[in-house]
Amino acid sequence: MGTKLVAMLVMMVLSLLNGWYCLGCWEEENVALLHLRENINFPDGESLSSWVVNETATDCCRWESVECSNTTKRVIQLNLFNIRERALGDWYFNASLFLPFRELRNLSLNSNQLVGWIENEGIDRLSKLRNLEALNLSWNSFDNKILSSLSRLSSLKYLGFQYNYLMRKKISNSSERLFGLTKLEVLDFNGNDDISNGDILSILNLNDFINLKELDLSYNQFGSSGTIYGVSPEFIIYPYSLLISFSCALLCMSRSVPVILLPALPYH
Ligand SMILES: *[C@@H]1O[C@H](CO)[C@@H](O)[C@H](O)[C@H]1NC(C)=O
Ligand SMILES: *[C@@H]1O[C@H](CO)[C@@H](O)[C@H](O)[C@H]1NC(C)=O
Ligand SMILES: *[C@@H]1O[C@H](CO)[C@@H](O)[C@H](O)[C@H]1NC(C)=O
Ligand SMILES: *[C@@H]1O[C@H](CO)[C@@H](O)[C@H](O)[C@H]1NC(C)=O
Ligand SMILES: *[C@@H]1O[C@H](CO)[C@@H](O)[C@H](O)[C@H]1NC(C)=O
Ligand SMILES: *[C@@H]1O[C@H](CO)[C@@H](O)[C@H](O)[C@H]1NC(C)=O
C-alpha cells in the first residue's frame, strides 16, 4: 500500500515536471519572454522575431539572446543589446517584465533608448532578483535620478553605465548618488560628461564600494577627484589593486588616457 502510494506520488511529480519542462524552458519564463518581446517592440517593432512558439522552436532556452542554467533550465542571462528599433523612440523600463526570471544573473540592456521607467516599476525593483550580478545600462538616456534606484541592487558585481547623461544633454542638479553596492567589482561610468562637473564623491560614494577592482571614469568632467579611500588620486602610484581610468576626468585638458592606479587598500 505504502509503496503504491509512493509510486503514485512519483508519477504525479513526474507528470507535473513534464508539464513544466515540455517546452525545454519554464513555462512562466517562456510567457515572460514573449511579454518582454512585445514590450520592446511596442507598438510595431519586429525585433527578436525568433522568439516564437511553434512546432520547431519550442525551447525558449535556445532563443537568441537567452541563456539558461544547464541544471535548473531557468534563464540566467538576457543579452538584449541594441534590440529596440530606433524608429520606435524612447523606451520606458518596466521591472515586472524581468521579475519572473528568478535566477537571472546577467542582464544587458545597452543601447535601447531607455529614458526612465513607468510608475512603481523602477530599476530598484530588480533587487528582488537575488542573483543579479551584472547589469549593463550603457548607451541609454537615463538621467541622474536613477542613481539611488541602482543603489538598491546590492548583489551587483558589474554595473555598466557608459554614456547615459550625455545623450540626454540634461544639466543635472540633484543630490542623487550611487552608494552602498559593497559587492561591486567593476563600475563603468565612462562618458557621463554633462552631470559630472562637481567632485567625484558628490555622485559616487566610492568609499562604499569596498570590493571595487575597476573604475572607469573616462570622458567625464569631474572638477575634482575628492579623496578616495582617504587618498587623493593625484598622488597615487604603487602597488596596484584598483584600476582607475581617469582620461579626461580631471579638467579635461586632453583626450589622452592616463590610467591612475590605487594602492592596495588597508582593509582588503
Ligand atoms: C518556427 O519558428 C522559427 C523561428 O524561431 C522559424 O524559423 C520556423 O520557420 C518556424 N516554423 C514553423 C513551422 O512555423
Ligand atoms: C552548459 O553546458 C554547455 C554544454 O555542455 C557548456 O558548454 C556550458 O559551459 C554550460 N554552462 C554552464 C553555465 O554551466
Ligand atoms: C508592466 O509589465 C507587466 C508584466 O508584463 C504588465 O502586466 C504591466 O501591465 C506592465 N505595466 C505597464 C504600465 O505597461
Ligand atoms: C554578461 O554578458 C555579456 C554578454 O554576453 C558578457 O559580455 C559579459 O561578460 C557578461 N558579464 C558577466 C559579469 O558575466
Ligand atoms: C556594456 O555595454 C557597453 C556599451 O554597449 C559595452 O561597451 C560593454 O562592453 C558592455 N559590458 C559588458 C561587460 O559586456
Ligand atoms: C540647483 O538646486 C539648488 C537647490 O534646489 C538651487 O539653489 C540651485 O540654484 C540649482 N542650480 C541650478 C544650476 O539650477
TrEMBL record:
It is a single-pass type I membrane protein. One of its GO terms (cellular component) is membrane. Pfam families: LRR_6, LRRNT_2. Residues 30-69 form the Leucine-rich repeat-containing N-terminal plant-type domain. One of its GO terms (molecular function) is kinase activity. Keywords: Glycoprotein, Kinase, Leucine-rich repeat, Membrane, Receptor, Repeat, Signal, Transferase, Transmembrane, Transmembrane helix. InterPro entries: Leu-rich_rpt, LRR_dom_sf, LRR_N_plant-typ, RLP23-like. It is found in: Membrane. Its main location: membrane. Residues 1-22 form the signal peptide. PANTHER family: LEUCINE-RICH REPEAT-CONTAINING N-TERMINAL PLANT-TYPE DOMAIN-CONTAINING PROTEIN, LRR RECEPTOR-LIKE KINASE. This is LRR receptor-like serine threonine- kinase GSO1.
